[in-house]
Fold:
Amino acid sequence: MKVSYHGHSVVKIEANGKTILMDPFINGNGLTDLKVEDVKPDVILVTHGHGDHLGDTIELAKKNNSLVIANFELATYLEWQGVNTHGMSIGGAYEFDFGKVKLTPAFHGTGLETENNEIIYLGMPAGILLTIEGKTIYHAGDTGLFSDMKLIGDRHPIDLAFLPIGDNFTMGPEDAAYAAKILGAKKVVPIHFNTFPPIKQDPHLFVQMLDEGIGQVLEVGEAIEL
Ligand code: NI
Ligand code: MN
Structure:
């Protein structure tokens, strides 16, 4: 399968004849190489309701008749916007036709800001475990470090982990390096950095903190074969 990184927390997976997009923040994402008109996701996985993760989900899903998978409250909100959804909750897994999805904890917020200066709370933010073509990919979403990452890694051997390193809103590089260790991930790719001034980081310094051969910085648009 082909797994590519598209700036901020956007990850695209092409496997089992499907295109799966995670946290499709395209408009307003100064780092991404994607265009809403060009991406045709069959499935969209959303970690939480913040604008830099929910992104262009509604437009993409309506245009492409994509299935959107998210926590139950966020899925319900999206369903009300006319999107085809599948709601889940943390700790639950479901076998879809393209692969298996399980939501994991993430310590973060999930408020969506409206034009009327209101915040709509959209359930528990999550991480995502996607098992597809026999490999398990972990997208941590936005989260601080927590010790149950060890439990996640013990229960689900992780082939590839996408971990936020931006600091301020999520783990910084040191905590993310510790997370990589307790997750026991075979390969780790940093995400959620350099999009905005408060999350400026050098991803190469992060990779140097990891055990030899584990970390890989993916340039925007770069793909790896898994
Ligand atoms: Ni967030
Ligand atoms: Mn974020």
User: Anything to note?
Assistant: The CA atoms of residues 93 and 102 lie 4 Å apart. DSSP finds six helices and 15 strands in the chain. The first strand starts at residue 2 and ends at 5. The first helix runs from residue 51 to 54.
